[in-house]
Write a structure and sequence with these properties.
globular, binds zinc ion, 5-stranded mixed β-sheet, 11 helices, 39% helix, alpha/beta
């Protein structure tokens, strides 16, 4: 059982993503110092990833010339459905996790109090606390990275729904019978608009003989197309990458239109590293498509806002969670 650390100020926030584990340390306020990244390596299995999360926390603390004894608590954002009462991750499709007792394992490894939440919920909460000065009553967040995370904040608090999966826009079906998703379903937004999906479309097109500057840029190795490569290709006016990015944006626009019809939030926050990197191409198409799919006249009353928290949104949300739970 972790000791009582309530007198300490330092908290560590962790975002577990499909490809990266991000950590950040926070002394006071919500400014993250020394954000660090470690690859997730989910293919090695849950136990290995838990070990890597613990390592990422230790590294963040060590980088700040502190010790684990100086830390009050750790907040962790996970891309899946989390049972905060039992400390288990019920399912996290992108990590291929089912019933992983993450909190107990991390508390055992670190000897610190650990709190967990869905990472999309945390990122939306972070955007609400840091970026939305008007404190709107209803905010939906959509975060586009390797996959797509989402969350819903209602009256300043995370809205989880009955089975804790509310706000999971990544698994909203936007193309019936569409591409297979990591959750087992077909046509989910995650499977069509995230970076993995986008890269898959680009690779497929290259196989079919379509030219792109990426072939030269990556020296023929198309396994890892990074967001910065997409940016470079767009700057070079690459028609293939531009068409693929626009297609992702159209799927995001359909999701936004559906969200407006279902809950009509005052604000929909669009964030994540991919969104931030190519927002100039995506944002107008998302807007235009959402207007088409929302009920006539309803879209204009909903504000679409780009988050500039970038990679840090989930980590900041995890810091907020750790603070709230130990206040
Ligand atoms: Zn899905």
């Amino acid at each position: 059982m972790p000791q009582n650390n309530e007198h300490l100020k330092v908290v560590v926030g962790v975002e577990v993503g499909g490809s990266k584990i991000r950590t950040g340390l926070c002394r006071e306020g919500l400014k993250i110092t020394r954000p660090l990244k470690l690859s997730t390596k989910s293919e090695r299995g849950a136990a290995a990833v838990v070990g890597r999360i613990a390592r990422a926390v230790r590294d963040a603390v060590d980088e700040a010339d502190l010790a684990l004894d100086d830390v009050r608590a750790v907040g962790v954002g996970v891309p899946g459905i989390v049972d905060a009462d039992t400390g288990s991750v019920i399912c996290a499709p992108s990590l291929r996790w089912d019933d992983v007792p993450l909190r107990q394992q991390l508390e055992k490894e670190l000897g610190l109090p650990v709190f967990m939440e869905n990472v999309g919920n945390l990122a939306t909460l972070a955007a609400y606390m840091v970026e939305l000065k008007s404190k709107p009553a209803t905010v939906q967040g959509i975060f586009v990275g390797t996959g797509i995370n989402g969350g819903l904040v209602y009256q300043g608090e995370i809205y989880r729904g009955v089975n804790r999966s509310a706000g999971e826009v990544g698994h909203m079906v936007v193309a019936v019978g569409g591409a297979k998703c990591c959750c087992g379903n077909k046509g989910c937004l995650d499977a069509l608009a995230g970076r993995n999906a986008l890269n898959e479309r680009i690779r497929e097109a290259i196989k079919n003989g379509e030219p792109t500057v990426l072939t030269d840029l990556l020296d023929g190795d198309m396994k890892r197309i990074r967001t910065s490569d997409l940016r470079k290709a767009l700057r070079a006016g690459d028609p293939l990458v531009e068409a693929c990015v626009k297609e992702s944006a159209r799927f995001l626009g359909i999701a936004v239109g559906n969200i407006v019809n279902l809950i009509h939030p005052e604000v929909i926050v669009l964030g994540g590293d991919m969104m931030e990197a190519v927002s100039d191409k995506m944002f107008p198409i998302i807007q235009e498509t959402a207007r088409k799919y929302a009920m006539p006249g309803s879209f204009d009353e909903c504000r679409l806002q780009l988050s500039v928290l970038g990679d840090n949104a989930g980590v900041i949300g995890a810091v907020i969670l750790a603070r709230q739970m130990t206040a």
